[in-house]
Amino acid sequence: MNALPCTVYISLTGALLTLVLGRRSPGAARVTALGSALLAWGIALVAAYQFHPSPAGLQTLVDVPWIPQLGIRYHLAADGISLTLVVLTGLAATAGILFSWNVEERTGEFFAFYLTLIGGVYGVFLSADAFLFFVFYEIAIVPKYFLISIWGSTNREYGAMKLVLYSFAGSALVLAGLLWAYAAGGAQSFAIGDLAAAATQFSHTQQVGMFALVFLGFGVLAGMFPFHTWAPTGHVAAPTAASMLLAGVVMKLGAYGCLRMALPLFPVGFVFWQPVIAWLAVIGIVYAGLIALVQEDFKFVIGYSSVSHMGFVLLGIAAANVRAVSGAVLQMFSHGVIAGLLFAVVGRMVYDRTHTRKLADLRSMSLYRQIPFAATVFVLAGLASMGMPGFSGFPAELTILIGAWQTSPWCTAIAAFGVLVAAAFTLRVIQVSFFGTSSPSVAGPSHTAAMAPISVPEKIGAALLVGATILVGLKPDLLLNLIEPALRSPLFQGVLNGGAS
Amino acid sequence: MSSLPLLSLIILTPWVGSLLLVCLPGLGARACRGITLAFSLSTLGFALCVLSSFNPAAPGYQFVERRDWISSLNVHYFLGLDGLSLLMVLLTAVVAPAGILASWKLSSDVRFFGLLFLALQGAALGVFLALDFVPWFLFWELSLVPAYFLIKLWGGAGASRAAYQFVIYTIGGSAFMLLGFAGIFLATGSLDFPELSRLGADGTLALKLASLGGFWPMAIFVGILLGLAVKVPLFPFHTWLPSAYAEAPTGVSMFLTGVMSKMGVYGFIRILWPLFPMRLHASAPCLIWLALAGVVLGAFAAMRQTDLKRMVAYSSINHVSYCLLALFAVASANGPGGEPSVAALGGSLLQMFNHGISASALFFCVGILETRSGGLRGAGDFGGIRSSAPLFAGLCGISMFSSLGLPGLNGFVGEFLIFKGVWGLIPWAAALSCLGLFATAYFLLTFWQRVFHGPKSGAAAGGFAELHGVEVVTLAPLVALMFLLGIVPQLLTGLFNPLVGIWVGHFTK
Amino acid sequence: MSPDYAGLFLALRPEGALVLGALTVLALDLSVFRRHSGDLRMALAAMLGGIAVIGAGVLTWMGPHGSVFGGSLMFDRLAITTRLGVLALVLVSLGIASASRAPRNAAEFVAVILFASCGFTLMAAAQQLLLGFLAIELASLSLYVLAGFEKTRPTSAEAGMKYFLFGGMAAAFLLFGFSLLYGLTGSIDLPEIASRLPADPRNPLLVVAFVMVLVAFGFKVAAAPFHLWAPDVYEGAPTASVSVVASASKLAGFAFFTRLLWVGMPTAAGSVAALPVSAGWLPALAAISLFSMLVGNFGALAQQNIRRLLAYSAIAHSGALMLGVMAAGEFGSAPVFYYAATYGLAASGAFGVIAVVERTGPCQKISDLAGLHRRSPLLAGCLGIFILSLAGIPPLAGFFGKFYVFATALRLGGLAGPAGWLVVLAIALSALALYYYLVVLKQALVADPDPEAGPIKVPILAAIALVTAAGLVVLFGVAPSLLLNLP
Predict the structure, then answer these.
(1) How far is B128 from chain A (nearest CA, A)?
(2) Phi, psi of B65 (to 5 degrees)
(3) Which residues in B lie closer than 8 A to residue A394 (C-beta atoms)?
């Protein structure tokens, strides 16, 4: 448990090491990167295993004064929610590295940026001080630009710039909101508890304004409709590992920020905005799903599906009861794994072999005969993404639906329609991409000869992710038992009105 | 005996077989077929085991397995079996191996076919045995996946579209059902079927749902109804069915019609009725019309088909609608259900089993026509087959007569009971549904006459090969069952009659 | 008031060291260094200059605290930290100078830099109009020379001329403002001026006085609308000169004017904390800040030239720094100092990288940086750190600087008044700014080099200077308290 902060240090040290080693030997960089990701993940897993929820919620890991002039402390702490996401980060990071084993260009730098991003993400999930949180949050922004613009594919410079500017604009909103709260409340520190205490004296208008700034800022990163457009473009342009991490983990930063910062700090403002958020979430679910249904680019389908799934997370958060929010956190985990898997198949297994992502081209390749492993993985991931029971998406969405029903039945009903849309576009893309032509004669040997078999790192990575989604799907208690006590802690008491009967 | 988790074994054994096939990529076609059949037959074995120690008279579920699963949603891994479930398990145990035998000649990707089929079988069994919403829904949804691929990869020319339509329709229904159960959980905190049935019977459930306010209780009912109705299918949600059944390979069509369409009816009886007796009672007058439409229009549509497979598919709609008709008639009855209710309900259960047997036999026969003629299956493409293949003609004929309800064969008993019951409850409905009966008789006889009688013509002009080993083995047991159940229906009715009595007493007012 | 010459001498030892160093450099260059070739001569001169600066730094550290020479000089926290900061920035600029293509008169270049530093250090401590004016002029005249140092190159000559003309004008304004202040109060001592200023901030003479002062201030730190010299000087002047202009000069300017405004004219400040604003120089400062941020950020968006881009970015940063100046009266000058110092580090570092790249070819267009990551990973890495710090990305110093300034400015009155709105605008514009910073980094870190461009060898002194600057940017970002707790 107390080793958790090491996840941050290990990742950042790993970044430096790979940068140095990568100049001499790409192999060493790969191994170092994998080693540090595994180590960090291992620490996270052990911590999650040994974790005992405490009624106070956050359990302090490190707490030392940092910038006394502003009362800023270097305060890392964890509760069940952060642990869940830290474990997810470790998993996605490890799998991402396995799927980028074939990066040959500027290998060391690739992993350096990658590990920096991961270090920032770990930091965000473990921060208990708003300033620290923000610092890590921004650390995670810049590497994205380079990962996409250097190693990305189609339209990468545009995608990278758009993604980074949206993220940064979002974080600027957050900064404005937090500073406003800090200054207006006369808080003596940036500890979340202190800010929340100061926020109680704010007028209704102030709370509404501050909440809007902070939530919107985080919401942008979480892919909230209508500020989601960066996500598909950026994720499509990104190299495989980066899309896995971006869709899988970085979008969760936004949702996590909403949950950890916006809600507890400004409960009154939240009540005001709640219906708006719920509706935006629902529109996002359905709208992004419908867009995904008509995409002609394989990766765009996945990109939009991420937006659609993040809509469920936001819906859960907007519902503001313990059940819905625990479902939202579960959905964050679940989507992290599933999106990673989908992007891995599309970006690494398929695109690196066929060099096309056009569904029209893939349709004639009948890929399932040539790379059956990829087809299997994609079908499993697709099922998970559809919310098929037995995979992690199902308990998450069910929990969210139940919880959200309590607050906004109409939104929930439309969200259920979103489930159907998700099934439709997933099935369509499965059908077209892998099972295009069912007649075996079309699968000429020309494709077969050109296509490299699925490599061992790919198989291990896919197995890890598939295993995770099935494990959580069959045993959601593993995570729910971590998440729920955290939501019953005093920090969330003001916002979340208990569980269902 | 009781220490063995028999029900889990029933469900999981086919899945183990499926997994085995996944793990043995190098296996030859023959070995694959063998493994598939063996694991498929395991269900029959276990089902007979269960049958031997099953006590029809005991109330409630037997062989119950209940373990904690998802504590925060109060979900349990809850399996149990009563007469209805046993009936369905037995049906699956018969139809699934028959389906595999019917696909014996399949040459492409035998291993993959086998593993999908076994997965499908396991999921279907799970639906019949699970007693908690989450595991039930898990099996319900998972059954779609192998079915989708079986139709898509081994089906005919329009298979892709048909498979897509099939899954989307079903998932569409399921999504609303899921939502409905989310609401139920919110109101009651439970997803346990027996528990919810208890609440449903004494009216507590309705009260608790009313706390959701507005029209939501009604919406929940409609949502669940929708999910089940698509699966059955109830008119007008049937449009996916003809193409899916017609495009699927023979063995799969057999399983779809024999077992999967029963999943819907099973859901009606196991879930919708016990949970919402009052609402079903209130909406039964409308629903009866829908069921009647299925009975009559299904039959008339079948009559207009030239494609034999589509014809059988439409006739399936007709037959399954009988089951629902009976159920709705029972639900609509005012006052404590008497003898007609018992008859209708019993007939409905029996009809589920019988239709499973005879429809899959018919699909198999059409499949034989299709393979022998190289893909033709129009009614006009054949003629005079009886003279070249008398055994085939005979067995096919028996299946048809079973389907149209000739006394002495199994179909008769079920339909007779249904008519008797419905007549006692809602005479006009019974009268109207006779239209369907006549139409069925008409088109089956036309089928019989065109294909088997008359001069040899069409694809059969140059003679028609007789049934051979595997095909006989496939068809003969089904036909034997038709006779057996036609003569001794007590074999089955004994299993569920006590149950039906209790239900009628419980859920009707 | 008996003049305390001994105290004055003690206090001005650092300036003495700088002047002595400058003279030594000149002397040695005439005698010993003559024999050496251009590059080495430059390096030797720069090293000597560096020793002088370090010496001055040590003497500053050990120097007196409090008021000296009857209050003409004030060695408070702001003064001492600024003096140290200025010297450190000059040191970095000297390192850069050693790497630039050697000007013809290397020693003179270094000597003039040292004279300029002398002016900066005096500006940091001056608490008296006359002394302050002299310090500014000493610094400015040196800077004009530095800007036009490569007199044979037309752009450099133009830069020098332009800077001189604008600077001269600004000096005239400043002098006029000072004379009005003296006329109003009969004193040149800032605290005394404060106590004798007319009570009504709308007194016409007073208004003219502080407007004059603000004009000069705007010129000195390149704030809009007095920024017009900046892009041309940044573009044309020798790189090492620009580095001094962008870093040390700015820090000293902010320190001096913060003191002048808040110590000399606190009663005329007015308020921008809430609506309606009350008259004084604060609203005027707020307007300058607004203009600077808008002109700087939007101007930078349109630039193709890396130096002009950095010039506009400098204008934008001045605008943000003004926010800190506005809050300095109530919450102290630490945010301004921190921001200006770390900005100086990053800016001079960025120009240092340009200077080194220039050794192999022109470095004017942004695309001249293309493929820097292949040509010299060290330079690319350092440039990345400097630019990201300018953009305000944590954990680099630029982020905390902004954060600190914004947080302090918001404390003035939350979002109730112009101060708060300016903060929100500044935050929004910083998101916009990331765009043009990333355009630079895209060339340096993403794009592939021109096939003809070979690797770049980084001279050792420059490498030390750049790595130190980059290290400090990271260090002060991670541990801002180190800088905030300095003296």
Answers:
(1) 16
(2) -125, 130
(3) 138
- Supply A445's token pair: 């040997």
Query: Domain spans of chain B?
Result: 277-509
Q: Which two tokens stand for residue A287?
A: 């709208």
Q: Are the beta carbons of C420 and A180 separated by less than 8 Å? A: yes
Q: Which residues pair with A76 in a beta bridge?
A: A62, A127
- Of B244, B254, B249, B312, the residue nearest B94 (C-alpha): B254
The secondary structure of residue A266, as a DSSP letter, is: -
Backbone angles phi, psi at A451, to 5 degrees: -95, 125
Whole-prediction pTM? 0.90
Contact state of A67 with C481 under an 8 Å Cβ cutoff = yes
Q: Which chains touch B (3 or more CB pairs under 8 A)?
A: A
ipTM: 0.89
Domain that holds residue C17: 5-484
> Rounded distance, CA B400 to CA C81, Å?
102
Chain B neighbors of A500, CB-CB under 8 A: 185-186, 189
Total number of domains constituting chain C: 1
What 3-state DSSP class applies to B4? Answer: coil
- Number of CB pairs < 8 Å for A and B? 104
Structural domain boundaries, residue A296: 5-493
Residue A261: the pLDDT is: 87
Chain A residues with CB inside 8 Å of C440's CB?
Answer: none
Contact B145 A500 (CB under 8 A): no
Rounded Cα–Cα distance for residues A407 and B207 (Å) = 20
List, for residues B153-187, the tens digit of each pLDDT value: 887 788 888 888 888 888 888 888 888 888 888 88
Write down the mean pLDDT value for chain C. 89
Enumerate residues 350 to 379 of chain A having a beta carbon within 8 A of any beta carbon in chain B.
Answer: 379
d(CA B181, CA C149): 82
Q: What is the pLDDT of residue B336?
A: 63
Spatial contact of A139 and A119, defined as CB atoms under 8 Å apart? yes
What distance in Å separates the CA atoms of residue C225 and residue B19, rounded to the nearest whole number? Answer: 76
Of chain C, the end-to-end C-alpha distance in Å amounts to 29
For B227, name the nearest residue in chain A, comparing CA atoms only: A420
A225 in contact with C at a CB cutoff of 8 Å? Answer: no
The answer to whether the CB atoms of C434 and A146 lie below 8 A apart is no
Rounded to an integer, what distance in angstroms lies between the CA atom of residue A415 and that of residue A324? 13
Chain A residues with CB inside 8 Å of B70's CB?
Answer: 395, 475-477, 480
What is the number of helices (H) and of strands (E) in chain B? 23, 2
Residue A45 belongs to some domain of the structure: yes
Say whether B197 sits in a helix, a strand or coil.
helix
Residue A501 located in a structural domain: no
CB contact under 8 A, B153 and A435: yes
Q: Which of A68, A109, A182 sits opposite C407 (nearest CB)?
A: A182
Distance (Å, rounded) from C-alpha C291 to C-alpha C426? 11
Chain A residues closer than 8 Å to B185 by CB: 402, 500
Chains A and B lie in contact, requiring 3 or more CB pairs less than 8 Å apart: yes
* Mean pLDDT over the full length of chain A: 86
Mean pLDDT of C241-267: 91
Q: Which residues contact B289 (CB under 8 A, 6 or more apart)?
A: none
Question: Cα B126 to the chain's mean position, in Å?
Answer: 14
| Strands A72-78 and A59-67, bridge-based pairing | antiparallel
pLDDT in tens, A262-274: 888 888 888 899 8
Cα→Cα distances C369→B463, C304, C389, C435, C447, Å: 84, 12, 18, 17, 9
How many domains does chain A divide into?
1
Nearest chain A residue to C398 by CA: give it: A135
What is the distance in angstroms between the Cα of B22 and the nearest Cα belonging to chain A?
11
Strands B75-81 and C73-75: unpaired
In a domain, A498, yes or no: no
Report CB contact under 8 Å: B189, A500.
yes
